[in-house]
Design a protein that fits this description.
With 291 residues, the protein is α+β, with helices and mostly antiparallel strands. It is built from 13 helices and seven strands.
Length: 291
């Protein structure tokens, strides 16, 4: 077998795991896919003939790409949506093995990813790779540009911040539910002023290709545009838990067709992702609630 073909097969075998690694660090499906694709390009440009642990090497490359993306995101604070709560994970058509299912279904889920947004890029990478994926500090150190001991301190500091920030998460979920419920009510009633009050001035709506096919625009930016779009449109949306977080879903006949993944910035809605792709919807833990 030619080396390039062998490398491509190895990469495809690891693609789902690498996507999960990137998602944990970035909290964004689209950015995670971009990171994995960039890792593949770097892999193709590198000589890996002497690499003994190719899986670990690919994880390191993905981690470096994610670290660059996190640092770039941190420097673009004027783009409000870049400081967003995480999107629900979906692994496309690839199968997820039991170990990966455990990663997705851990006790904190999306709540952890929300907290990770508060960490520095280096803290986030060190915490995620060590605490979630078990990467040794000696392998992590070159990624974050620190010694192994300094990297251990990074992860420890991140761990303390995560534990402190998750206190009161039940109250936070209730607050998020109230905001989503208020948005649904304002949309149903066509209350433009109330919608504007609930939206961050730089609110963004992003739709996947399937949602676009159902009549949504690929992207809308700014509270006025988002409010105008949703004015009177949520009559068919019902309350739901989407990926462990409060959201909405359009589910004619009780079958989810479009999930509304709501992102908050403080007490306002900063973004809504409309997810309608059947493969992604199937993998989302959508729980339809009454009312």
């Amino acid at each position: 077998m030619h080396e390039s073909q062998w490398l491509a097969e190895r990469f495809e075998a690891d693609r789902t795991r690498l996507r999960l690694v990137a998602y944990r660090m970035l909290g964004s499906l689209s950015e995670a896919e971009d990171a994995v694709q960039e890792a593949w390009l770097r892999l193709g440009r590198s000589g890996v003939g002497e690499v003994e642990n190719l899986g670990g090497w690919m994880t390191t490359v993905v981690a470096r790409v994610c670290l660059d993306m996190l640092r770039s995101r941190r420097s673009r604070r004027e783009e409000a949506f870049a400081d967003h709560a995480p999107e629900p994970v979906a692994a496309g058509q690839a199968a997820i093995d039991p170990e990966q299912e455990a990663v997705l279904g851990d006790s904190v889920g999306l709540a952890l990813l929300v907290v990770l947004e508060k960490l520095t890029p280096a803290e986030r990478v060190a915490f995620v790779l060590h605490d979630t994926f078990g990467v040794p500090f000696e392998e992590l150190a070159p990624v974050v540009g620190r010694t192994a001991d300094a990297t251990r301190q990074l992860a420890s500091r991140a761990r303390r911040r995560v534990r402190g920030a998750t206190v009161g998460s039940e109250a936070d979920l209730a607050r998020r539910r109230d905001i989503v419920d208020a948005f649904r009510a304002a949309s149903r009633e066509g209350d433009l002023d109330r919608l504007l009050a609930l939206l961050d001035p730089e609110a963004v709506v992003r739709s996947d290709a399937t949602a676009v096919g159902l009549g949504s625009a690929p992207e809308m930016r700014g509270a006025p545009a988002v409010a105008a779009f949703f004015k009177g449109r949520a009559r068919g949306a019902v309350r739901a838990v989407v990926g462990g977080a409060p959201g909405l879903v359009w589910a004619p006949g009780g079958r989810p067709r479009v999930a509304f993944v709501v992102t908050l910035a403080g007490d306002r809605i900063a973004g809504i992702d409309l997810v309608a792709d059947p493969a992604h919807l199937e993998e989302l833990a959508v729980e339809i609630l009454e009312g």
